[in-house]
Amino acid sequence: EPEVTQTPSHQVTQMGQEVILRCVPISNHLYFYWYRQILGQKVEFLVSFYNNEISEKSEIFDDQFSVERPDGSNFTLKIRSTKLEDSAMYFCASSRDIGEAFFGQGTRLTVV
Amino acid sequence: AQSVTQLDSQVPVFEEAPVELRCNYSSSVSVYLFWYVQYPNQGLQLLLKYLSGSTLVESINGFEAEFNKSQTSFHLRKPSVHISDTAEYFCAVSPTEAAGNKLTFGGGTRVLVKP
Fold this sequence. Notes:
The complex is a heterodimer of chains A (112) and B (115).
Chain A: E1 5-7, E2 10-13, E3 19-24, E4 31-37, E5 43-50, E6 53-57, E7 65-68, E8 75-79, E9 88-95, E10 102-103, E11 107-111
Parallel strand pairs in A: 2-11
Antiparallel strand pairs in A: 1-3, 3-8, 4-5, 4-9, 5-6, 7-8, 9-10, 9-11
Chain B: E1 2-5, E2 10-14, E3 19-21, E4 24-27, E5 31-38, E6 44-50, E7 56-58, E8 64-68, E9 73-78, E10 87-95, E11 104-105, E12 109-114
Parallel strand pairs in B: 2-12
Antiparallel strand pairs in B: 1-4, 3-9, 5-6, 5-10, 7-8, 8-9, 10-11, 10-12
């Protein structure tokens, strides 16, 4: 069964460093997403991506964040200068259209 | 904008007992509704969804949820739980008119099934 794959599963980075979280969505899906879940809080939408551009983004997704689909298979989330409050579980998801978003296992980002 | 409220943050339940997880939503537009499950140390998995048609939807592992438009609810039930149902359950909605599938999640309900 096809699945969304995220790497790494756990990333530790120093405050102020850049970090790139990687995702391989399901191959025939058209919509790609990043969500995050700070420990003990709700899963929050960050950004959606369709047709090689951002289709929607939340207030959380400020200039420190960017997404890219560099080669037609990977989908990356970059945080330019990490802050302590960026520590969270980051989930990538993809969907073909409406009805079901498939989530990856998540990347736990710890900023120290 | 949408919001989702799951009234119970934790629900302890004995094995083979029934369980109900409550979900209410608020939205100015029509929405699709979903329940996702997160087992320990795993990602989110879709449990069931309501897109249209019958307001009662079922999963393959015995869960069911009923969409009640007048009460803006989508409660999840299972008549007899197993130890393996121990997990966190998230209710979510997405607008029907928007392309794609941006989800708004509730806070989650942690179900602990006791032997």
